[in-house]
């Protein structure tokens, strides 16, 4: 699952800890860690929240494109 590395990279690029993102998603750090390691599937609501937070497309997080920029359709 390519998106697992994207989640971690986006977080680390902003010098954030898993606990910081867990707060954003209103979950716990151990639960967020499970998303990054693939132990649990990332809920769609969290995917959308993270895409908005990082200002990237959901397709970028999912590995469907390497273009970080949001489409301006």
What labels describe this entry?
73 residues; mainly alpha; 434 Repressor (Amino-terminal Domain); 5 helices
Helix content class: 55-70%
What is the CA-based Rg, rounded? 11 Å
Calculate the terminal CA-CA distance, rounded to whole Å: 28 Å
Portion in beta strands: under 5%
* Global mean pLDDT: 93
Would you report the number of β strands? 0
* Count of separate DSSP helical elements: 5
Q: What's the level 1 CATH class?
A: Mainly Alpha
CATH superfamily: lambda repressor-like DNA-binding domains
Q: Biggest β-sheet: count, sense, barrel?
A: none
Overall spatial form: globular
Instruction: Note poorly predicted spans.
Output: none
CATH fold node name: 434 Repressor (Amino-terminal Domain)
The overall number of domains is 1
Which structural class should the secondary elements be placed in?
Answer: mainly alpha
Task: Output the helix-strand order.
Answer: HHHHH
Provide a descriptive summary of the structure in words.
This protein starts with a helix and ends in an 11-residue tail after the last helix. It has one domain (3-62): Orthogonal Bundle (434 Repressor (Amino-terminal Domain)), CATH 1.10.260.40. It has 73 residues and is an all-alpha fold. Helices cover 60% and strands 0% of the residues. It is built from five helices and no strands. Helix 2 packs across helix 3 (29-37). The radius of gyration is 11 Å and the shape is globular. The relative contact order is 0.17. The longest helix has 11 residues, at 3-13.
């Amino acid at each position: 699952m390519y998106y697992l590395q994207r989640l971690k990279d986006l977080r680390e690029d902003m010098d954030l800890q898993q606990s910081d993102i867990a707060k954003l998603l209103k979950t716990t750090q151990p639960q967020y860690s499970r998303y990054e390691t693939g132990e649990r599937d990332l809920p769609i609501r969290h995917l959308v929240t993270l895409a908005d937070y990082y200002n990237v497309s959901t397709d970028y997080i999912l590995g469907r494109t390497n273009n970080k920029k949001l489409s301006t359709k």
